[in-house]
Design a protein that fits this description.
The protein has 253 residues and is of the alpha+beta class. It has 2 domains: 157 residues, Cation efflux protein transmembrane domain (Alpha-lytic protease prodomain-like); 85 residues, Cation efflux protein, cytoplasmic domain (Alpha-Beta Plaits, 2-Layer Sandwich), CATH 3.30.70.1350. It contains 8 helices and 3 strands; from the N terminus they run ααααααββαβα. The protein has a 3-stranded mixed beta sheet with strand order 1-2-3. Helix 2 runs parallel beside helix 4, helix 2 runs antiparallel to helix 5 and helix 4 runs antiparallel to helix 5. The longest helix has 30 residues. The radius of gyration is 26 Å and the shape is elongated.
Length: 253
């Protein structure tokens, strides 16, 4: 329960910091602080899972006397606390990677409590103390892959990778299909935090094309409605300007 409290505290602090408005040094604000918290909780949970597996191995190799009654009481209390925590975190865990990390921590502890209750009852009525080690190992093995997924998602955002669910080739093709656009380059898509996707691109427009504002409006609407990108930055260039840029880049190389 100590790790649960730590994970929840980190998540709540991160949520409050993330609400701070953007300033001259943090022009995108502090939203990504939640992703740092999610990554930290993923690492914390990974370490807990490894420790559980280690303890399970040690107890299986060297069985020790287990007080099943005390074990059962603590597990029941832990289960109640975890069920309440899960209820509070459930709705937000699908939207926030930070909350997802805390939710996974509580979820794993809840499974631990259920497993310990079952193991305590078996030990109490059969005396099979090795059941405790099997339950602990099962919990550790359940947690590890889910921790890896959380850490991978966090690192993808921190490294400004393309958000899950967005195909950059599809975005490119959709923009090229807009009337008046001749070419596109320097297309970048990333996420500031969970659910806040950002995109920037240079659009080469045809010389006798429609009004520039109409092109900007259509591409911005396309990004928002189809690809759920909330912040779009576009630079418009004509073909002559773009050709000059490519020529300069070629001379520099």
């Amino acid at each position: 329960m100590l790790t649960d409290s730590t994970a929840l505290a980190i998540s709540l602090i991160a949520i409050q910091i993330a609400k701070r408005a953007a300033d001259k040094k943090r022009t995108f604000g502090y939203a990504r602080f939640e992703i740092l918290a999610a990554a930290f909780n993923a690492i914390l949970l990974f370490m807990v899972a490894v420790y559980i597996l280690y303890e399970a191995y040690q107890r299986f190799k060297t069985p020790t006397e287990i007080q099943s009654t005390g074990m059962l009481i603590v597990a029941v209390i832990g289960l109640v606390v975890n069920l309440v925590s899960m209820r509070l975190l459930m709705s937000a865990s699908a939207e926030s990677l930070n909350v997802k990390g805390a939710y996974l921590e509580v979820w794993s502890d809840m499974l631990g409590s259920i497993g310990v209750i079952g193991a305590a009852l078996i030990i109490r009525f059969t005396g099979l103390t090795w059941v405790d080690s099997i339950v602990a190992a099962a919990i550790g093995l359940w947690v590890l892959p889910r921790t890896w997924v959380l850490l991978k998602e966090s690192m993808n955002i921190l490294l400004q990778g393309v958000p899950d669910g967005i195909d950059i080739a599809e975005v490119d093709a959709s923009i090229r299909a807009v009337e008046g656009i001749e070419d596109i380059h320097d297309l970048h898509i990333w996420a500031l935090t969970s659910g806040k996707n950002v995109m920037s691109a240079h659009l080469v427009i045809q010389r006798s094309s429609r009004a520039e504002q109409d092109i900007l409006a259509e591409v911005t609407r396309l990004m928002s409605e189809v690809f759920h990108i909330s912040h779009t930055t576009l630079q418009l260039e004509n073909s002559q300007f773009h050709a000059g840029l490519e020529e300069n880049e070629g001379m520099q190389h």
